Amino acid sequence: MASVTLLIVFPFLMAYAAARDLLTMTIPNAVSLLLLLGFAAFAGATGMWGWDLLSHLGAGAATLVVTFSLFALGKIGGGDAKLAAATAVWIGFDQLAQYLVVASLAGGALSVAILVARAHPLPSLLGRLPFAIHLHDAKTGVPYGIALCLGALIVIPETVTWARMMAS
Questions:
Q1: What b/e sequence results for 124-147 when a residue is b if at least 16 CB atoms lie within 10 Å of its CB, and e otherwise?
Q2: Would you kindly state where each structural domain of the chain is located, as residue ranges?
Q3: CA angle 91, 70, 105 (to 5 degrees)
């Protein structure tokens, strides 16, 4: 059960969040909720309780405080804030800094790529796709869920969570 949750459910939800953010510039609340429920199933299946569980929940809570503050300042979207926090619950404090650095670097690269693309006319083939038109608009933000997904998928194999799954 634990391996299914970590190896299938977690990456699927992260990829869905990234794709949904790219196509619609929104990340549904259900994705973050399902990530939390998946973590609860994982924690139960691996016997994660006590301080270990509280540490993972604390990583999510700390991330939510920071990302919600960024949301309140208009720097990131609400879906991004919730996704980062739900992902932090999976990552835990042991690799949280690494996750945030990798996601930030990926987000920076994504932002530069989008700015470069916006500086050029949209190719006619892409001009037929509503999401491409929307993404090309300079008033549109950056689908940061892509960077959060990439950061999570790169970092998760380095976590205690992953080691716990491999041990069960």
A1: eeeeeeeebeebbeeeebbbbbbb
A2: 2-167
A3: 55
